[in-house]
Amino acid sequence: MAKSCKGLAMELVKCLSESDCVKVENRPFRECAKEKSPLISSECVGLRETYFNCKRGQVDMRARIRGNKGY
């Protein structure tokens, strides 16, 4: 279960690295991922929300019994 969100994390990093926030403004990934900027595509925002829900499912005891929803 520790690696169930790894695929999402890799896609999020890939999406953010292709965004204007990182390419044009040369800002770090963490800073770009935190804010709701028009420089980030809606695909990246969706991936960020999905990744958050995946990580939250790892600490939720009900999800730990059933298993985290895989990617």
From TrEMBL:
> Per UniProt, which keywords does this protein have?
Disulfide bond
> According to its record, what are the GO cellular component terms?
mitochondrion
Q: Its GO biological process terms?
A: mitochondrial respiratory chain complex IV assembly
Q: Which InterPro entries match?
A: Cyt_c_oxidase_assmbl_Pet191
Transmembrane ranges? Answer: none
Q: Provide the family line.
A: Belongs to the PET191 family.
Protein's name according to its UniProt entry:
Cytochrome c oxidase assembly factor 5
Q: Which organism is it from?
A: Ambrosia artemisiifolia
